[in-house]
Amino acid sequence: GCPGATRAADRGPISADPPAVSMANRGPSYGLSREVQQKIDRQYDPELEQVLVRWILAQCGGDVAQPAPGRDSFQQWLKDGTVLCRLINSLHPRGQGPVAKIQASAMAFKQMEQISQFLQAAERYGIAATDIFQTVDLWEGKNMACVQRTLMNLGSLAVAKGDGLFVGDPNWFPK
Known about the structure:
This protein is mainly α. Helix content is 47%, strand content 0%.
């Protein structure tokens, strides 16, 4: 699964309720301490990133621009959900992709909606629910290592299905 978030009960008593933070004004991040966040960030694998970028570019054909290297660029590249939706659609026969409407949008809720459409489609494709990242893991960049794991699982599954829809080098994905 995707560890990292500890339950509130494990963190001891919380004295004051943190103020509600709206999406537009992202104040301090409650929940994950800095140490926990740094530990999660260290699980991010730059080599996996290169493999995933190569695969996604190959799999999506010319529809997708290449991101600059680095975790932040990788996050920005995937954040609006369009690349992910194109990816999951490309693993289905033409015209049968699970995401009917893929639209780039600057609006947060639209981006999150597209990410969650990808996540639902990935689960239907066969990824175990425990291996699927949460929308905030990607959208807020909270757990990009988990995003990588979901995508690696997706690639491995696409190779294993052997339905002729996988594009790229099967050796990118460990059996």
